[in-house]
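Sample pair:
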Amino acid sequence: MASSKKLPDALVTQVAQVLSQRVHPGQHLTLGLSGGLDSVVLLDLLVQLQHPLQFRLSAIHVNHQLSPHAGDWAAFCCKLCTSCEIPLDVVAVQVPFQPGDSLEAVARIARHEALARSTADFIVLAHHLDDQAETLLLQLLRGCGVDGASAMAEQNGRQLRPLLNASRIQLEQYARHRGLSWVEDESNMDTRFDRNFLRHRVLPVLSERFPAYRETFLRASRNFSESALLLKELANHDASTAIHEKKLSVQTLAHLSTPRAKNLLRQFLKLHGISAPSATRLEDMLHQLLSAKPDAQIKIPLESFELRRFLGRAWLIPAPGRPDSTRLNYLWRGENELVLNELGGTLKFWPVHGQGISRTRLEQAPVTLRLRQGGERLQPDCKRPRRSLKNLFQEAGIPPWTRETLPLLFSGESLAAGLGIGIDCNFQAHPDEPGIMLEWKANGRLDQSSVSR
């Protein structure tokens, strides 16, 4: 670094303003250092601002191991940081590239995952005005919504981008003024990559007619960002009345305009950690939720979830593996609990007196836990006739997908109790005898399915 030269005021002021608004004295910043022009310039700026702004500085170099020169770039970064007395962490990653994948996207994900493992208060990245313009164009060409068109923000969580208002030309001028050196990644010239195609083929032509396109695109991104914020606030407003216990009211969806209903549905998916699907898929999901017959069993796969509809609400549940009901047969020998891995839960047995399942009558034959196979009937109310489990589950409001994994308690071949629907009349404990209560703990939480008198 050429630390003896005077800093060009504009770039230093810009970075200092961004950092001073967000970084407190004593906080730790780590720079994503590739060794290229952009990150080398940012390192030079941060080295000289760390004392005035009183932050701690380190750097991370992510070695993707994709280029034959990758080792040289890591060595360059080590030498550079040593000269600046800045700690450097070199992280080698494996890029899990498969045929059909975008190498750019997969490498970016691997890089961001490596950076995210840092314990620093902020991860500082060297994206600049030209990167912002390229990102906006790429997003628009992919048919993004306003959220995607917002492109990159100066701060996103721990990520800081203090150079977003600086152009690549400004960085080059700064580097020459400071006498900096950097490495060149040969892949940056490969126009088979979408970003490089825009950078070398499209944007130079655009610049001939619209020389201020970078600043214009930046304003557009900020406008899109404001629109995205308004949509988020509207979604939160709608969700406050439409979403209860992470279930979405289909009736509320039906009363909203289509764009507003889609906005709410995206928010519902986001609450479950599911990224927004394509516009076509989102419209199809909305159509199925609103147009299918009331008794239709909707099942739409979404990542590791399934979108279902039941009792006028949309549910997102983890996609289950259907256990083999013909083979599942657990023998109960008096344990306080049985871990039923195939069903994804634990059944607890509580000793009580004068209520629950009669222990005496239950243990007159081997006690087993099984799943529905069809045709089972139960009489929870001694004053009413024996009824099918399907009717009892429907009456209890238990979703169809839950019924498939709720264990049934048998004494010999007699059905004694069904989780969530009750105890058969013949097995209900009398006031003067010991009984048993059951509770089903599914997926790490206490489920509502239990049996009582």
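Residues 2-7 have pLDDT under 50 and may be disordered.
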